[in-house]
Design goal:
The structure is a homotetramer of 339-residue chains.
Chain A: E1 5-10, H1 14-25, E2 30-36, H2 40-49, E3 55-57, H3 60-65, E4 71-74, H4 81-91, E5 95-97, H5 105-118, E6 123-125, H6 133-144, E7 150-158, H7 168-187, E8 191-198, E9 213-219, E10 224-230, E11 238-245, E12 248-252, E13 259-262, E14 265-269, H8 274-277, H9 279-294, H10 304-323, E15 327-328
Parallel strand pairs in A: 1-2, 1-4, 2-3, 4-5, 5-6, 7-10
Antiparallel strand pairs in A: 7-11, 8-9, 8-15, 9-10, 11-12, 13-14
């Protein structure tokens, strides 16, 4: 067996800290031996989460250049991704990049083109739902064709509350982006157009958001998609997907867990948040990535192309929000590396 | 089509009044044209429920002798059933008898023998669960053999609270009697032995009852049956039956109805009582009985034999409660009329 | 109690025959004493379903003029409704009219205006889903406000197969019309606009239909509605409605019935068709109508206005199918009689 | 962070090999650096599963004496456990012992007494269900008392088929043992008596077994337990537990996963076996054990006492099978170490 993978985590906010703990206590074959943050205090605190192994850096480019790491995990805000990713490609080191790939579709396309020019996959994007057992099972029905062709996808994405200063655009970039990737993952097709419908807003959204909204999409083979995005759904967290095929209908994301009858009611507890709902998916995602790298193979999870396509769809979605019209999504040629 | 059936209802307590309303407002082809109760005020009030048609009697034997009725419904307490049933057999008029058939197995056997001597079925016993769609569907699996032979039956009978002055014996006579009939209905077999286990009692039972209890039975072909009887289950009403076959398992009585997600929970409302759970079964039972009689046929619902067999099992069940031992059930020969 | 209601059924096709059987064998307080059909042989056969009571007519206007009936049930094709309804209003007799009210929105509006001019409700329209226990329970959440305001409605209407010669327009007039009425019933609001999206068609639709389709609607208070209409869904019949409120989400129409585990699968049987799914609703609808008339009251079920509003929405829906655009629905003033 | 734990796995059959893969590829902080099997070929093959790290031994006592390992995992057949466990206690090394603890209750008690005499917990027993999320959630209701006191436990343990040469006694030792430990885990009480009921046997059991059977137990506070053990249930694997409390009822182990409607059915796939059902539990169990040892703490999972109590219950269960009588379970004093 190869030695443990030496990993540096860039960005030590909530997501970065979670990943440090995950890599240290849950994932076999990896050690967090570096921690990068511009805030030295936060970096030191994060290093403690990894035990004694982790060296503290405040410049990601220095860490990238050091030669001390087998791979990197990037969790800083999206607008800081571009430079780090370009440097990682330049140094030819594998990097796991939390979504979004970059701040916009144009720069995301540049990353795609740069990686394609290298002819080597180094970047994996953190669309963790692809590692959820339910997502994988649903994809199985798309792939095996046993229920005939897919015709429609009904998606529900409900959060208990939205963070302060959340905006309509963030509803697309932060939340719907997962459904966008899900549609691409299930169907294996690109999304060709997006429309957004706004209706009555929940008073729970505090006057700030038009919440919920309905996002309508279409794929290359004319699968119709509707997404309910509701980020102040109050009752808890829920991601539900219903796929309509010619011969049947498949649902994933139904309520599970202990079933209780008391006080005149039957039922159970709703999952409080994505951390609980997708805990196993996060673990599976990282374990798979670590195993792939330790085996000397290129990453085979969501690619830079997937990150770019999602960014392009999000931009079209925000344009559709603004205009009230249907907006086409155009991606340009897909480099051979991603086919 | 024949004229409407003229029915007299004997006994106008809660069950009698419910049946008057049912026959008047829900059942096609029947009129309640007589009402019998020893309490004249109660009888008059009950007659009003039937509109202007109903004549008031205070002696059931006078009503039986009057020749004014096509059929009778008997809902007085069980200890008053024997004389009325014997008189109805003597007059050869159809009579629908709410359970129990009579006060004990010995007198029930006398009714069976009297009806068998007549060679004509006149009595139908009110085991209404046989008319529940779920019960009928489960019986289908026993009959068609598509899942192989039946091996075990797990039964749950839960009431929210027990009435005042309820006793351990009434748990058998009033509640378990429905499970006893259900086992006989599903399997088409007689019950051969009964054991009762008492464990920790719920404080909700008020110190008065050993509640819940577990009733263990065995049928002629050695199907093992266990019944949880819990008459202070607090959360609501539930009748659940799980049948284990060689090739599969079938459940009926699961929770149904609108599905709600709110306040951190998913689920729905529990049925509050048997009236709601078995409302359709009561209607189906009476409509079938009325249709049969209007068509000039003998009743084909639960027979006097079914009432007798249930009574014999209940007596064995109470003996098993008292002794802590397994008690055999012996029924004697089954008259040809009931085969 | 009043005498049984004397009813004549106009039209004796499948739906008419079903209603004759229902009124004869299931509904208390009604006799089918007249049967009307232009085809004498079919009328005679239908009369036999009602026993000896029913007189045969071949002209509905003669039956309406005879004075022999307390009420009528109209089940002929929709294009024949207008004349009969106008005559019934003229004669001031109650008439139960299966959907659609008339052949188009303009003539439906004339019926509304004529009834409003009379100042008396005589017409009830056969939107039977309003009598389904699940529909009524879901409406309860809209009315009591315990989950806050309604925001979205997701509707699924799936049939196993479509009849021969079915068309895209009939998908609206025959199937979506029930969802249109459902939205109006749940929200208590009118529908203000309709859009139709077509995507990939199922090969099960035989090249004839664009099936499934997605119908998007909006109500007066901006509740967003999406309907999946899929009339060749292959697996069986399903009507599912999910209502999104500010504080929670409610589903009705989930799968029910016996729960089986066998051959590596858990689950149960899908309802085969609307007759099974809404059997109890048909009975409740007619029993309520009969009870109302016997009590000397005007019908309080779905009104001519409800029939007209549905017709107007269907016309807008077909226009939306044809144009690919969002089409506004305008109803004009609502007469005081229907408020 | 401490160095990785060096572990030797004793016994390299199916369970041993699974654990080697698990410790190598799934568990953080552990390396399998030794493999012990009397069969040299099998040992070498198993060592390959662990990569290059693992040294091969054929005598467990030599490995225990070598000082090269921080901890051991014991997966040989139960009759070989006693000597290895005694040696491990003698050497004071932590050892994870797959069930059963030893071949019988008497020798299990000797292990308990030896460990108690040391005054130090070194042994953890592989009752992996305690690490299942559902089991832990159900235990929560026993601990927090929010539903009142526990009254009854209904347990179902169904396997698709039994291995060749399976016996009635093995149904207890191999399968019911998990339910025995579950009852002790949920209630925190010892089991005081056991009865076994045999009924009609499934033909799927091949004439060899009386399958299914019903195992009845009672705990110290008189909680009544019934277990259906059915090892040829044909349809798949299922472990279902229903706990009846004073104020409500809780179920765990219901069917989960993608929900499909096709070919007239709704439902999903049954779990095929315990490996799928308890995959996460096995991982959680080992990760917890490794984390505890790396932190320098004594193991806090199922103890030698738990292994001994289960063995005593199994012996009583087999005696109850043989006699048809209720058999008391007596454990003797519980050493302070385990309280």
């Amino acid at each position: 067996m190869a030695e443990n993978l030496r990993i540096a985590v860039i960005g030590t906010g909530r997501m970065g800290s979670d990943h440090i703990k995950r890599l240290t206590h849950t994932i076999a074959g990896a050690d967090v031996t570096g921690v990068v943050d511009i805030d030295a205090g936060r970096a030191t605190a994060a290093a403690a989460l990894a035990g004694d192994h982790a060296k503290v850096w405040n410049d990601p480019h220095a860490a990238l250049a050091s030669g001390e790491y087998d791979a990197f995990v990037l969790t800083t805000p999206g607008m800081l991704h571009y430079d780090v990713l370009m440097d990682a490609l330049d140094k030819r080191v594998p990097i796991f990049c939390e979504k979004p790939l970059t701040a916009d579709a144009a720069t995301a396309r540049e990353i795609v083109d740069a990686e394609a020019a290298l002819g080597q996959r180094l970047i994996q994007v953190g669309f963790m739902r692809r590692f959820d057992a339910g997502y994988q099972r649903l994809r199985g029905w798309f792939e095996d064709g046993s229920l005939g062709a897919a015709l429609m996808l009904h998606c529900r994405h409900r959060n208990p509350t939205s963070p302060p200063n959340f905006t309509d655009a963030l509803m697309i970039y932060d939340s719907v982006v997962h459904e966008i990737d899900g549609v691409r993952y299930f169907t294996g097709e690109e999304i060709t157009e997006i429309t957004v419908r706004r209706g009555r807003a929940s008073r729970g959204a505090g006057g700030q958001l038009s919440d919920p909204q309905q996002i309508l999409m279409r794929t290359e083979s004319d699968v119709l998609v509707d997404v309910e995005i509701f980020v102040n759904a109050a009752f808890g967290y829920q991601v539900h997907t219903e796929a309509v095929f010619e011969q049947g209908v498949v649902d994933i994301g139904g309520d599970e867990g202990a079933y209780v009858r008391t006080a005149g009611r039957w039922g159970g507890a709703v999952t409080p948040g994505f951390e609980q709902r997708f805990a196993a998916a996060f673990d599976t995602e990282f374990q798979g990535w670590v195993n792939t790298l330790r085996a000397g193979r290129a990453p085979d999870g969501p690619s830079a192309w997937d990150g770019y396509a999602a960014a392009a769809c999000c931009e079209a979605g925000v344009a559709a929000q603004d205009s009230g019209e249907t907006v086409a999504v155009t991606l340009g040629d897909k480099p051979a590396l991603y086919r």
